[in-house]
Amino acid sequence: MKASRWILVAMSVVALLAAIGFSQTAVTTPGPGHRGRHFGRMLGISARYLELTDAQKTQMKDIMTKEKPTIQPLMQQLAQNRQQMRQLESAGNFDENKVRPLATQQSQTMAELIVQKARIKSELMQVLTPEQKTKMAAFEARREARFQKHFQQGQAAPNEATPNQ
């Protein structure tokens, strides 16, 4: 349970950071797949939901601009590792001696990314008012509940599909 909660928190942080971090530049300069518009839309939704002031939006954008050089290399490392893992998986011959070090490196990079994003989220949360923090906590609680419900339904489905013997 605690692991799934941590994953959910990490995903929430990623979504929040991505929305804020890419909103300023990505809306006007979309990257591959035009993700920039998506992140800009996410910031708009988050800003409206939390009723962020222009000053808060500016502070958050400044934090993300300052932190982007820390996060970007970690994200690039994760992408490179995923590509290398895909190549190893499709090579035909499984070689644990090649996969294991790559998996270890991937987990270390992910751990560093989670730590950095938690630190950044803490900075971002300091920009919010107590009412906005309460609203954010309620949003995250609803997201956690949806995640748990989806997870539980996913766990129940295989048992229901298997006929009783």
Walk me through this protein's architecture:
The chain has about 160 residues and is mainly alpha-helical. The chain has one domain (about 1-150). About 85% of the residues lie in helices and about 0% in strands. It has helices at about 1-25, 35-50, 55-90, 95-125, 130-160. The longest helix is centred in the middle third of the chain and has 37 residues, at about 55-90. It is extended, with a radius of gyration of 19 Å.
Helix-strand layout with pairing:
Blueprint lengths: L1 H25 L8 H16 L3 H37 L5 H30 L4 H32 L4
Q: Strand-and-helix sequence, N→C? A: HHHHH
Pick out the low-confidence regions. Answer: 6-11, 16-39
What's the total count of β strands?
0
Proportion of beta-strand residues: under 5%
**What's the main sheet like?**
none
Instruction: Give the termini separation.
Output: 31 Å
Q: Report mean pLDDT, rounded to a whole number.
A: 76
Structural class: mainly alpha
C-alpha-based Rg, rounded:
19 Å
Shape from CA axes? extended
Residue share in helices?
over 70%
Our count of helices gives 5
Q: How many structural domains are formed by the residues? A: 1
